[in-house]
Amino acid sequence: MSEIRAGVTAPETTDYKKRTAFFISDGTGLTVEAIGHSLLAQFRNQQVEQVTLPYVDSDERLNQVLHRIERAASESGLQPIVISSIISDDIRRQLHQSSALMLDVFESYLAPLAALFGTDPAHTVGISHGIANDRRYTARIDAVHFAMDNDDGRRTREFESADIILVGVSRSGKTPTCLYLALQFGLRAANYPITEEDMDSTALPKILRPFQHKLFGLTIDPRRLMSIRQERRANSRYASPEQCEFEVRQVEQMLRRSQIPYLDATELSVEELATRLMSQAGIERKIS
Amino acid sequence: MSEIRAGVTAPETTDYKKRTAFFISDGTGLTVEAIGHSLLAQFRNQQVEQVTLPYVDSDERLNQVLHRIERAASESGLQPIVISSIISDDIRRQLHQSSALMLDVFESYLAPLAALFGTDPAHTVGISHGIANDRRYTARIDAVHFAMDNDDGRRTREFESADIILVGVSRSGKTPTCLYLALQFGLRAANYPITEEDMDSTALPKILRPFQHKLFGLTIDPRRLMSIRQERRANSRYASPEQCEFEVRQVEQMLRRSQIPYLDATELSVEELATRLMSQAGIERKIS
């Protein structure tokens, strides 16, 4: 059965000794999986095997899924959890026949929304992550290629058309944040690494000065930076405590001196960096 | 007030003539926004202004939000919708004082889960998109840099360590799909464009043959390809109907001849491409 699973075990060797939570969707499963993760994160003391089952949109697939749920129940002796977003009433009804605790987003929320709007839901599958329209697709792809081309100071002649330019030391998280901003929000995000050559003074590098209003800094705890750099070039000067400390201190002074807003990336995920910097810089998304 | 909004109007000029749906979270807002989009997609005939308000985790921020909701209500004369994921009971209770229809994921689902587990939820904010651990962070960043370095056939010497190698004509969606696979699932995804030089025969390019087992094809409707390429190089041979048709036909023959699985990218979003190809190729995620 096709599936996407956390962990590395092959599907056929799944071990149902623990309780299993199934994240089931008739689409990509991305949304319901995110819901599942945040709910289960509130019960950290529980050992729960998490399995995402996307594209459950046919009777055949549904039967595989039902079988899978019952196997998890009987092998563990623990009631499975189903967190789902299934648009079809029929498929949802059949899922309810399983022995799992079933929490379905559409089941919970379509009725109150329908009552508010005074109209029935469309029951159309796969709208949320589909290609909404050509304009959205184009903006997104354009932003991705922009981020690729304008990564790591590789090119600066397109800075004029950037929505935001991230600056910071090497390996402070600029690249993944730019790519996330492009993919998720359609933003044209460039980045420019502050390297040792730029650190003779704490003035902004010349090339960045015309774009000061769209600069945003990332800083990072020097020890964390060191550990990231060690993974890349172990025992190099680049990854030494002295070098990491020096670079971070210089860049922070540079950012403060030029009054460039910045975030500390040490404890933040790429999603948090992206959304927080948009809030802080007052940048609006290009796609939704 | 800091916020992330669909559309391009500046926050202060928000026009509340339409009904407003607020997606409110104490974290990034990404999950609740995805839920909101998929629910409202079932009511396409309704005009709804959609506003995401992330990081609502203090009384000050909450008061701004409450004010905002009431303004939307009074300016439109229509009851607003709040779709939220708020972990704090206290903030949730205060949100309930507003005049909005309130649908909260934690409110709906924590109680049945707590009953099942026989234990109270932790009420800890911001776990779901935070840096879970160093290993996860490192795997993700490593995958992103791998995708960058191994984009567009730029480098092939790392194909050995790729989890998957996407092949297809230029602008069939390979690059964004690889980046998404890296960011979302920590997969090392490379891509290789099949260019005209490779099309003298329908045999697999030599460089790809040792990696046949990890190749995955993307194909695309020639008219769609043409319109994407026109955006990039209008009126070029590259974007001509004949060229697009020729390339797509050749690549499809190549994929079939070498029995490489492939997907038609024409109608699929990046999320759909990524999750479907993982299902089809039986690839497991590296991070969850």
Rg value of chain A: 24 Å
- Report the β-strand fraction of chain A as a percent range: 5-15%
Low-confidence blocks of residues of chain A: 1-12
Which CATH architecture of the largest domain in chain A?
A: 3-Layer(aba) Sandwich
Query: What level of helicity do the residues of chain A show?
Result: 40-55%
Total of DSSP H or I helical runs spanning 4+ residues of chain A = 9
Structural class by secondary-structure content of chain A? alpha/beta
Quaternary form: homodimer
Query: Greatest contact pair?
Result: A-B, 94 and 95 residues
Lateral strand order in the biggest sheet of chain A: 1-3-2-4-5
C-alpha termini separation of chain A: 32 Å
N to C succession of SSEs of chain A: EEHEHEHEHHEHEEHHEH
Looking at the structure, the CATH topology of the largest domain in chain A is: Rossmann fold
> CATH top level of the largest domain in chain A?
Alpha Beta
The overall average pLDDT of chain A, rounded, is: 91
Q: How many strand units of chain A?
A: 9
Characterize the main sheet of chain A: 5 strands, mixed
What is the 3D form of chain A? Answer: elongated
User: What is the total number of structural domains of chain A?
Assistant: 2
Protein name (chains A, B): Putative phosphoenolpyruvate synthase regulatory protein
Enzyme class (chains A, B): transferase
Family (chains A, B): Belongs to the pyruvate, phosphate/water dikinase regulatory protein family. PSRP subfamily.
Function (chains A, B): Bifunctional serine/threonine kinase and phosphorylase involved in the regulation of the phosphoenolpyruvate synthase (PEPS) by catalyzing its phosphorylation/dephosphorylation.
